[in-house]
Write a structure and sequence with these properties.
Helix content of chain A: 10-25%
Number of strands of chain B: 8
Structural class of chain B: alpha+beta
Order of helices and strands of chain A: HHHEEHHEEEEEEHEEEEEEEHEEHE
Strand content of chain B: 25-35%
Oligomer: heterodimer
Number of helices of chain B: 3
Number of domains of chain A: 1
Helix content of chain B: 10-25%
Number of strands of chain A: 18
Strand content of chain A: over 45%
Structural class of chain A: mainly beta
Radius of gyration of chain A: 23 Å
Distance between the termini of chain B: 77 Å
Shape of chain A: globular
Shape of chain B: globular
Distance between the termini of chain A: 14 Å
Largest sheet of chain B: 5 strands, antiparallel
Order of helices and strands of chain B: HHEEEEEEHEE
Chain lengths: ~450, ~160
């Protein structure tokens, strides 16, 4: 019966997917044009979603998120040739669909509600006893999966239309380059021993038509990258992203509690979970959109040939602590240290930039009003967080002040059930959002998301 | 054939279909956001000729929810960001009956009083109640019902015209 439901769910999901594009000047924002940074963003979103998928052991997962950032004041030249500052909106949308298939065995649980609630996982006597190799429980299934996920960034302009006696309405136009970054990945999971995701990242840029419309087929810059993400023995993560010619990012992570569990039979669930991640990201490439020059500003310009460009990497080391207090309170605490591989020079001052050791730090806390039903997969969470973020591009994009760091925060309300959930969020200078796109500095963003997980 | 074999075959076929035919998710979500915010989705052509502005389009809509076309012009000359006012609809001012028909693909509007650069758009108007049987008996002839129960279903991009 379960398999029939799975099949119906697959067909329903595919029926919802548009089989062709639905819709048939230059704002040179920095991070938007940095496809290395954008690839990091879309892969991080991919990992975030897969954490949920593994937690819920989903066969089918669909997730959608829309984020609007208002108050983007853009200097532009209008049709009459006059230079003006026009308010626009930055639109960011993220979508993801994952289909998992049990090649061997299948996820367990007495019924769908029990499996999706997550309360069964790692609680069986066999799992606690650790009867498999390395003290882990004996695997019972091999899961193969396919994921398509993507992130769209772009500016739009709202126009008010007065329909006379029929009232007024607002419509929107595409403005300037639109960015589409997509991941197509295959996955293989043999838990708790390993999982591996591998796939292609497609970075696409599309120039809208001069009348504000756009065709998805009018690509102006298309690049491919490849990524692989793996986990061994539930605690060791290894992630890489490569362009067609070089390794662009390399990440090693240790989930400390799970590693310790290999030697200590049982760690009390109240002990906070610690994840340590080291990363190398080839972030600085002497591109016009970068806020810094590599090594020196001498003889460099935004029109210099690619052969003269120098490159530098950013090394980071992050510590993430997660705590669940009786299913009522959830706390995340993160700190990320940084060090560039070479001397970097601020383009605004042509002086060497001394990178702060602390790149990002944040703390978030959620209160679950349905703590007594969390074991059934129901959560109603009111969340908030504060943060501090350092980036060389912040002085370029901030509205007030001159420093390289910003404090910020977010507030959100989310409702989760075994089969899906929704969330509404307000964000201002929150570090995890600024690192996705530093142009959102000093701008308020609203975000809505929804998911279905079966 | 075992149920498991059939199931596996179905999943393989569906997976291949998914891989080959689906639009990537960034495009799907952009299309959803565009639908929410009424993104301009088709192009029009506009040109000035002897005291009139001739506007034409290829987009058609023959669905049951189609209520007519509306023509809009920027409120101010030389300002594409000034907002838009209605120029013509099936009822606006004395009404333009041709704009109630889905087969209409052009409209000729009187030129604005002052010269300069103007921008035109075409709106495809939809009835809020998609099922015609649920609308009042005079829905197709009542101006007040049209004004109170329609919205922009699709909006064109803008076309610039220089008025001498």
């Amino acid at each position: 019966m379960n398999r029939v439901i799975i099949l119906i769910a697959y067909i329903a999901a595919i029926a919802c997917i548009p089989f062709s594009a639905a819709y048939p000047v230059a704002y040179e924002a920095s991070t938007l044009h940095n496809s290395v940074s954008r690839s990091e963003t879309v892969t991080n979103l991919f990992f975030e979603r897969w954490d949920k998928i593994q937690e819920k052991e989903s066969y089918l997962d669909w997730y959608g998120k829309i984020n609007w950032v208002n108050d983007f004041k853009i200097s532009t030249v209008d049709a009459a040739g006059v230079k003006r500052t026009i308010p626009m909106e930055l639109v960011r949308t993220y979508g993801s669909i994952t289909i998992n298939y049990p090649v061997i065995g299948g996820y367990e649980g007495a019924d769908w509600n029990e499996r999706l609630s997550g309360k069964r996982k790692k609680e069986t006597a066999e799992e606690e006893a650790g009867t498999g190799a390395f003290g882990l429980w004996r695997p019972k299934n091999l899961i193969a999966g396919f994921t398509a996920s993507g992130f769209h960034y772009g500016l739009t302009r709202s126009e008010k239309i007065n329909r006379g006696a029929a009232g007024s309405e607002t419509v929107t136009d595409y403005k300037y380059t639109q960015f589409f970054d997509d991941i197509f990945a295959l996955s293989l999971l043999y838990l708790p021993y390993f999982y591996v995701h591998g796939g292609v990242i497609v970075n696409n840029q599309i120039e809208p038509n001069s009348d504000g419309t756009m065709s998805y087929t009018d690509s102006s810059n298309l690049k491919f990258r490849y990524f692989m993400a793996s986990n061994l023995l539930s605690f060791f993560n290894l992630n890489t992203t490569t362009s067609q010619s070089e390794l662009e990012s390399f990440e090693l992570g240790i989930e400390v509690n799970k590693a310790a569990a290999l030697f200590i039979h049982r760690i009390h669930p109240a002990v906070p979970q610690l994840t340590i991640t080291a990363k190398k990201l080839n972030l600085f490439n002497d591109e016009p959109y970068d806020a810094i020059w590599v090594e020196s500003a001498a003889g460099k310009s935004d029109t210099m040939p690619d052969t003269a460009k120098e490159r530098a990497a950013l090394y980071t080391l992050s510590f993430l602590v997660r705590e669940n207090l009786l299913n009522y309170v959830f706390i995340d605490l993160c700190a990320e240290l940084q060090k560039p591989s070479k001397t970097l020079v601020d383009k605004r001052t042509s002086r060497e930039l001394h990178f702060a050791a602390l790149r990002e730090t944040y703390v978030s806390i959620s209160y679950n009003f349905l703590g007594n039903r969390a074991n059934d997969g129901y959560l109603l969470c009111l969340s908030g967080g504060i943060s501090r973020f350092w980036d060389p591009a912040i002085p370029v994009h901030r509205k007030k002040g001159t420093g390289y760091y910003l404090h910020g925060g977010f507030g959100s309300l989310s409702l989760s059930a075994p089969f899906g959930g929704i969330e509404a969020k307000g964000i201002y200078n929150y570090a995890p959002e600024l690192r996705k796109l530093v142009e959102t500095a000093d701008k308020f963003a609203v975000e809505g998301s929804v998911y279905i997980s079966l | 054939m075992k149920a498991r074999t059939i199931y596996k075959a179905c999943v393989c076929i569906l997976a291949v279909s998914l891989l080959t035919s689906m639009s990537a998710c960034s495009y799907m979500m952009d299309a959803i956001e565009g639908a929410i915010t009424d993104r301009s989705s088709f192009s029009i052509h506009a040109e000035y000729s002897v005291g009139n502005v001739y506007i034409s389009w290829d987009e058609t809509d023959s669905g049951e929810e189609f209520a007519g076309y509306e023509i809009y012009i920027t409120e101010e000359p030389d300002d594409e960001y000034s907002g838009y006012d209605i120029v013509a609809s099936r009822y606006f001012k004395n009404g333009s009956p041709s704009l109630k028909y889905s087969t209409t693909d052009h409209y000729s509007a009187a030129k604005p009083e002052s010269g300069g650069l103007y921008f035109y758009r075409v709106g495809i108007i939809h009835w809020n109640e998609k099922n015609a049987a649920k609308r009042p008996w005079d829905w197709d002839s009542s101006e007040s019902y049209y004004n109170g129960n329609t919205s922009i279903g699709k909006i064109s991009g803008y076309a610039m015209v220089e008025i001498p």
